[in-house]
Write a structure and sequence with these properties.
Blueprint: H1 2-25, H2 36-43, E1 57-61, H3 64-69, H4 71-81, E2 85-89, H5 92-99, E3 106-109, H6 115-125, E4 129-133, H7 139-147, E5 152-157, H8 161-167, H9 171-178, E6 183-186, H10 189-198, E7 205-207, H11 223-233, E8 239-246, H12 248-263, E9 266-272, H13 278-288, E10 292-294, E11 306-308, H14 315-320, E12 324-327, H15 340-343, E13 349-351, H16 359-368, E14 371-373, H17 379-387, H18 390-405, H19 410-422
Parallel strand pairs: 1-2, 1-4, 2-3, 4-5, 5-6, 6-7, 8-9, 8-12, 9-11, 10-11, 12-13, 13-14
Helix pairs in contact: 1-9, 4-19, 6-7, 7-9, 12-17, 16-18
Pfam families: Glycos_transf_N
GO molecular function, one term: Kdo transferase activity
GO cellular component, one term: plasma membrane
């Protein structure tokens, strides 16, 4: 049955691909299509003979976050195997991030999950090993690799309850492709149970934690840059609320609360999750009547109350200068982004109830008192209440850091599993 479903998915692939293009054309993220023409060769595995490095350790990551979180793992895999590293990503931004890592020999966009494309790419690359990262479970990729004799594994694996339920509707397909994995190094016990239910053998499942937390940095590189911006804004003595990785619903919540927060002397920084949304974000800021600035425009004065971080690579440094933080994708139902990024910097973390991508970290922060649940109705009052008691807030922030430190160590555990399987 799994083979039949695999064949059917390839038969409907052209129509599905057309549907994706149309949906992008109608979405706010349509600017991503500006790269479409130049991407076609990579997307369909049509690179020229000899243009892809061979006999490399191949890692497939979704996008920027996964590439960045894999930095130490990539270095360790390169040292262990003595091979070059080939990285594929699902997004152009992920590819560009990978190209900046000197440990990575080559970075390409991953072929679409169409068997002929995957088969040709694997024939060109002849990879030594394939590691798929987090939830990048592409059946044709894994099946083509298995047929070519390439050992495969899932590392830093995760899967939501919703996705696992959906995948069970076509369980024979996932049993076919996941059953061929040498091992799966997963983030938590929930992921272990869900992947076992989809066909990974229990003896090949290992709970190692999340490598993202091994990259937690309590000394961000651009703090001096942020300090200069805040000095130009005249914010050095103000209480500052920093909201990271925000989505539209959360920005609406912020703009609704902002006037009263500003009246109480609070300055606000927010960093949108998707920068391609900046046209609509600047429109919303204009319509709000708030005095705002964009980091990219470098036009700062002491009348500004709201700062929008519309550049990459600055969020951790902004968190470091915050009095209080909020992590997005949590009031908006996106599963929550990196809750420990501000926590490791000794910052109390506000977040919403949608933390299904990070249940362990959310629960740890809530249990220790370093995190606080908020929603659209109580957000403003919660911010004002916490900022009114500096001593209590400082105590909470210390607890947040302690919780964050407890999540390190996944990289070492993954490498132990890799080494054990290579010795079999």
């Amino acid at each position: 049955m799994g083979h039949i479903i695999l064949i059917l998915t390839n038969l409907v692939f052209p129509l599905a691909a057309l549907g994706v293009v149309i949906s992008f054309l109608l979405s706010p993220r349509r600017d991503l299509l500006k790269h479409l023409t130049q991407e076609l060769r990579e997307r369909f595995g049509l690179e020229a003979e000899g243009s892809v490095i061979q006999d490399a350790v191949w890692l497939h990551c979704a996008s920027v976050g996964e590439v960045m979180s894999m930095k130490e793992v990539i270095s360790r895999l390169k040292d262990f195997y003595g091979k070059e590293i080939l990285v594929t990503t699902s997004t152009q931004a992920g590819k560009e991030t990978a190209l900046k890592n000197p440990q990575i020999k080559q970075a390409l966009l991953v072929p679409l999950d169409f068997y002929p494309s995957c088969k040709r790419f694997i024939r060109l690359a002849k990879p030594y090993r394939l590691f798929v990262v987090e939830r990048e479970i592409w059946p044709n990729m894994l099946y083509a690799a298995e047929k070519a004799g390439v050992p495969t594994a899932l590392i830093n694996g995760r899967i939501s309850a919703k996705s696992a339920t959906a995948y069970k509707l076509i369980k024979p397909l996932f049993s076919l492709t996941l059953g061929g994995l040498r091992f799966a190094a997963l983030q938590d016990n929930d992921a272990a149970a869900r992947y076992a239910g989809l066909g990974i053998k229990k003896e090949n499942i290992f709970v190692c934690g999340n490598v993202k937390y091994d990259t937690l940095n309590d000394q961000p590189a651009k703090i001096k840059e942020v300090e200069k911006i805040f000095t130009a804004l005249g914010w050095n003595k103000n209480k500052i609320l920093v909201m990271g990785s925000t989505h539209p619903q959360e920005e609406t919540m912020l703009l609704r609360a902002a006037p009263e927060l500003i009246k109480k002397g609070v300055k606000i920084v927010f960093a949108p999750r998707h920068l391609e949304r900046m046209p609509e974000i600047t429109d919303a800021l204009r319509q709000s009547g708030l005095k705002y600035a964009l980091v990219s425009e470098n036009k700062f004065n002491k009348k500004i109350d709201v700062l929008c971080v519309d550049v990459m690579g600055l969020l951790s440094s902004v968190y470091a200068k915050a009095t209080l933080t909020f992590v997005g994708g949590s009031v908006a139902p996106r599963g929550a982004h990196n809750l420990l990024e501000p926590a490791i910097l000794s910052k109390t973390v506000l977040f919403g109830k949608y933390f299904y991508n990070a249940p362990l970290t959310a629960e740890a922060l809530l249990e220790c008192g370093g995190g606080v649940l908020v929603n659209e109705n109580n957000f403003k009052e919660t911010v004002l209440r916490l900022l009114a008691d500096s001593a209590h807030l400082e105590n909470m922030s210390g607890k947040a850091r302690t919780a964050a430190l407890g999540f390190k160590g996944a990289t070492n555990k993954i490498m132990e599993v890799v080494k054990a399987y290579e010795q079999k």
